[in-house]
Amino acid sequence: MLPAATASLLGPLLTACALLPFAQGQTPNYTRPVFLCGGDVKGESGYVASEGFPNLYPPNKECIWTITVPEGQTVSLSFRVFDLELHPACRYDALEVFAGSGTSGQRLGRFCGTFRPAPLVAPGNQVTLRMTTDEGTGGRGFLLWYSGRATSGTGPPPGARRKWVTDPRVEWAAWGYWDGE
Fold it and tell me: Which Gene3D superfamilies does its entry note (predicted)?
């Protein structure tokens, strides 16, 4: 154990040594990703985020991303951060998710507010995200992790039923097991 006088000097000394390279004009050896408005994203997995994330997203924008995972896989989306202007019908700022390439496919969800959407699994190897913003209030936007999942067959699991869940902040469909309607 160190004497009290030595221990009390050790913390500030170690901090000064750690910061010395930066005081001499050196920069940290990492780069922060820059998230742009839309684009084509291809690969087994990765992050997609709103423009400028983690800063506030810009007003009056429409950004469209197409995510493609390898053939024979389905796209799985897991939202890590979600912060868009809240409105019961997502009228002002919203993130929509569509199956396939483009916005004419089946809409898998429309999201706004700060309620993080549940994970989504698309029926195929492509999804399209469309984020629209108005001129008013903004937030940090979204950060999601996408990954390809091997398909294990077609259709829902045996005995599963489809149920639509409607909430002012989210609209989605899921296969599952439950009692009642």
Answer: Spermadhesin, CUB domain (2.60.120.290)
Q: pTM of the entire structure?
A: 0.69
How far is residue 8's CA from residue 42's CA, in Å, rounded to a whole number?
A: 52
Alpha-carbon distance of 68 to 177, in angstroms, equals 29
- The answer to whether residue 97 sits within a structural domain is yes
Task: Note whether residue 174 is domain-resident.
Answer: no
Asked whether residue 167 is assigned to any structural domain, the reply reads no
E strand or H helix at 169: none
> 104: domain range?
39-150
* Radius of gyration of the CA atoms of the chain, in A: 22
Domain count, the chain: 1
Cα–Cα distance list, 88 to 29, 112, 166, 169, 175 (Å): 44, 9, 11, 6, 25
Consecutive 10-residue averages of pLDDT for the chain (181 residues): 47 40 55 90 97 96 98 97 95 97 96 95 97 94 96 56 48 40 40
Is 158 within the bounds of a domain? no
CB of 80 closer than 8 Å to CB of 144: yes
> What's the confidence (pLDDT) of residue 31?
77
What tokens does 62 get? 């429409």
